[in-house]
Write a structure and sequence with these properties.
- 55% of the residues lie in helices and 0% in strands.
- By secondary structure, the chain is mainly alpha-helical.
- It has one domain.
- The radius of gyration is 15 Å and the shape is elongated.
Length: 96
């Protein structure tokens, strides 16, 4: 079940950290996997209200708000790409 959830969140460290904060018992992980299959990831990855890092969305908002207008535009342009897991062997291939 853990591997499925890791795959569903694209192996992203922040997402995995939030998932870890949501799990108190093994049944929680199965519930998270089920919800990730049927709901948008940002609707699932939310901690209890008042937690330091409430959600992936809140973390992105904090970083986004610190960008100037040009960088915010570039950040939004990243949304045009289809989400998928990051493959380790290909990570640096586009960097030259």
């Amino acid at each position: 079940m853990g591997r499925e959830v890791a795959y569903q969140v694209g192996y992203l460290p922040l997402a995995l950290r939030i998932v870890a904060g949501m799990v108190d018992r093994p049944a929680d992980l199965a519930d998270i996997a089920r919800r990730l299959r049927t709901k948008p990831i940002l609707d699932v990855l939310t901690l209890e209200p008042g937690a330091r890092d409430e959600s992936v969305e809140a973390s992105f908002a904090l970083s986004y708000d610190g960008l100037d207008a040009q960088m915010q535009s570039r950040f939004r342009a990243l949304g045009a790409f289809r989400a998928g897991p990051v493959r380790r062997g290909r990570r640096g291939s586009s960097l030259g």
